[in-house]
Amino acid sequence: MQRMVINRILIGIVTLFVVSILVFVGTSILPGDVAEIVLGQAATPESLAAYRAERGLDQPLYIQFISWLQGMATGDLGISKAGGATISSLIDGRLGNTMYLAAIVAVISVPLSIALGLLAAMYPGTWIDRVLTFGTLSLISVPEFFIATFMVLILAVNLHWLPAISRISPDATFLEEMRGLAMPLITLIIVVSAQMIRMTRAGILNVMNSPYIEMAILKGVPRKRIILRHAFFNAIGPIVNVVALNLAYLVSGVVVVETIFAYPGLAKLMIDGVQTRDLPLVQACAMIFCGTYVVLIILADVAAILSNPRLRNPK
After folding, report:
1. Which domains are assigned to the chain?
2. Are 279 and 28 in contact (CB under 8 A)?
3. Minimal CA–CA distance to 243: which of 200, 180, 295, 183?
């Protein structure tokens, strides 16, 4: 088991390295020049050359990559090419905002999704199962920008119940803060819960076809007890994996949601960096997103190994 965990960690490190190459090369070939964006169209060739030399933009691409990778490995994210501030200071507050939003969504959506998935598995083929299956399939098919735009149109524009822009004020009370965050929270809960509900239901029903479950049914054990005490724990592996993927999405895939609601999170900061061609900022945000995915997937794999004796003892 220890060897399997170490292998997962090594694979994660290799994945981060490969992604770092793709991120650096992909952002470097983006059209536009940060020097021209910062200094304006009236800048002289001399001032542009001086700015590029000051920021290290005139160095060969491989030298820039090695220097950037060394900084990432030591925790030095570098200096913003657009504003001159340290990237760590730019990311600090924004990452906290994104994690705060993701934590609230996770606390609500994960237990809710597992509970509804178990409910659908307890009553397969009934109206409860059909309603949940139809609802989750419909929500999965609808992109998050449509859900967010629809909510803004109904709840903010027509009914005036909630603000269309999410702002976090340090002087706001808890209720005022929740009211300001209600729109992105509801949107994200809807988006991530649908997939987790379907995966929980599918995982439970797949385990219910096992021989030992059939034997328990023949012995007259109630279906509710079978699901809660036997099937659920054997379906933990795939359920944890889909939960981990959705939690990673809450940190890295909320670009559309943060943009629509003008939420000051990390994804919105990356979009601003793309607009100003602030490549070190975009690269740092992308690596944080990738690192989040890798860490959560490793934790999901470890949880699956711990919950499944066959994976703990493959021989």
Report:
1. 94-276 (1.10.3720.10)
2. yes
3. 200
Render pLDDT for 258-311 as a digit per residue (tens, 0 to 9).
888 888 888 888 888 877 777 788 888 888 888 888 888 888 777 777 766 666
What number of residues does the chain have?
A: 315
How far apart CA 91 and CA 104 sit, in angstroms, is: 20
More confident residue, 273 or 167: 273
Confidence band of 31 (pLDDT split at 50, 70, 90): low
The DSSP secondary-structure symbol of 81 reads T
* Secondary structure (3-state) at 315: coil
Residue type, 182: A
Of the candidates 201, 256, 255, 191, the one whose C-alpha atom is nearest the C-alpha of residue 231 is: 201
Decide: helix, strand or coil at residue 86.
strand
CA distance 71 to 273: 19
Query: How far, CA to CA in Å, does 280 sit from each of 35, 73, 239, 309?
Result: 13, 14, 36, 44
In degrees, rounded to 5, the angle at the alpha carbon of residue 126 between the alpha carbons of residues 220 and 212 is 30
pTM of the model: 0.80
Alpha helices in the chain (DSSP H): 2-28, 34-39, 45-55, 61-74, 87-122, 127-141, 144-151, 174-207, 211-218, 223-226, 232-234, 236-252, 255-260, 266-275, 279-307, 309-312
